[in-house]
Each structure stands twice: as C-alpha cells, then as structure tokens.
Amino acid sequence: MKTHRLVSAVVGAALAVGATVALAAPALAQPAPGVNTAASAKAECNTATETAVVPVHVLNRDTAPIDVRVTTAFGDHKVSKIAPGKAYYHRFATGKGSVPAGNATVAAYKWENGKGHYSTAKVSYGAVTCVVKPRLQTTVVDTDKNGAIDSATVKNVGAHPVDARISGPAGSTAQRLAPGKSFTVRDTADRSPVAVFSAYKIVEGKAYYTVETKRP
Predict the structure, then answer these.
(1) Span of the secretion signal (predicted)?
(2) In 10 A of CB 130, how many CB atoms?
(3) Does domain 37-129 have CATH number 2.60.120?
(4) What phi-psi label fits residue 81: left (phi over 0), alpha (psi between -120 and 50 degrees) or beta?
(5) b/e map 72-101, b = 16+ CB within 10 Å
(6) Which residue of 2, 34, 94, 146 pairs with 119 in a disulfide if CB–CB is 3.0 to 4.6 A?
(7) How does pLDDT run across 103-138, given as a tens digit for each residue?
(8) Helices (H), the chain
(9) Could you check whether 37-129 and 136-214 share the same CATH topology?
(10) Domain ranges in the chain?
C-alpha cells in the first residue's frame, strides 16, 4: 500500500508540474499589420543637363488608399490618397554630375477599420556618372573650293561652359563659351587645309577634354 501511494504521489506531482508549465507559456505576440507596398529606385542621367536624377516608384498593393513620403539625400516628397493598385512616382533632381550608391526611405501610411497603420522601408540605387567630355558642333567653309578653309565655327552644345579653341585658320584662337554659344574665325589668307577644334572643362573637380579635326 505504501508503494502504491508513493507512485500515485509522484505521478500526481508530475501532472501538476506539467500543468503549471503549460499555463506559464507566454502567448506569441501577433505583429501589427503594416502597409503593403512595392518600391524601387535607381539613379540615371538627364543627358541634357549632364546631371543625375533618382526616380522612385512606389506601388500601393494594399486594400486601402495610402499616403507616401519618400526621403532621399536630395530632398523629400509626399503624395496622399494613392488608391489601391495605383502608384507614386517622383524624379529627385540631384543637381550633381555624379552620385554614389545610396538609399531612399519610403514611408507609407493608411487608415483602415478605424486604425492607422504605418510602414517604412529602404530601397537602394547604384552609383552613376553623367558628365561627358565637351560636346561641340563644328563647321568649316571653303567658299572658293580650293581645298583651304575660309572660316571655321565651333558651338558649345554641351551642358557646361567650356574653353574652346580653333587652330589652323588664322593661327590659334580661344574663347570661353557658355552652353549654346559659338564663335567663328576667318582666314583671309585662305591658306589652311585643316582646322583643329578642342575644348576643355572642369566639373566637380574633374577635367574633361575633347579634340576633333575637320577638312573642307
């Protein structure tokens, strides 16, 4: 009888301990619902200005309208009440000829079923360099068709001021040209069969140079 009572006591204690452990196990916390979006960013070039831009795209994949704010190193931008299935899109102008790789922060907010929901995410973009060597538009004129240049013209069709030079007709002549500006040299002696056009610029501490040769 003593042995039976001892075994019963041990089993009862084990069951009691098991019950205590089960009751003490904490319930798993359920994460608060966020905002369902898909976002992307990239760095690309505006060829007209030779500067980098960073377009950011955010698609509302949620079931309610959302507000989106995107923050970058080049400023931030916000759009409200983007409908489900619609997208946010903004091109951030950097004002720089090149940018390193970086991130844009996307914050999204919605109000649904009497509650506000908020999510943030980072989207990355790669580095890009947009400045190119001086872009020139060059022409030579041989009015009398004798193989010698009567005049030569150079125009700066790039995005930055350049120091341009025309060598050959009437020696060597240089001018600083703003974008869209040009100059012409004339050789009244009608003696040069070739014109050499060159241009130089410095943008954000880096030098760029170009040279081309033209004959009548």
Answers:
(1) 1-24
(2) 21
(3) no
(4) left
(5) bebeeeebeebeeeebbebebebebbbbee
(6) 34
(7) 999 999 999 989 999 999 999 999 999 999 999 999
(8) 2-24
(9) yes
(10) 37-129, 136-214
CATH 2.60.40 for the 136-214 domain, yes or no: yes
pTM metric for this prediction: 0.77
Residue for token pair 């040279």: 211
Q: What is the dihedral of CA 107, 123, 46, 214, to 10 degrees?
A: 170
CA distances from 153 to 36, 127, 169, 203 (A): 58, 37, 11, 24
HSE-CB at 63 with a 13 A cutoff on CA atoms is 4
pLDDT digits (tens, 9 = 90+) for 157-207: 999 999 999 999 889 999 999 999 999 999 988 889 999 999 999 999 999
Q: Which residues pair with 149 in a beta bridge?
A: 192
Among candidates 63, 107, 69, 56, which has minimal Cα distance to 83? Answer: 63
Instruction: Determine the pLDDT at residue 169.
Output: 86
Does residue 55 contact residue 123 with C-beta atoms inside 8 Å?
no
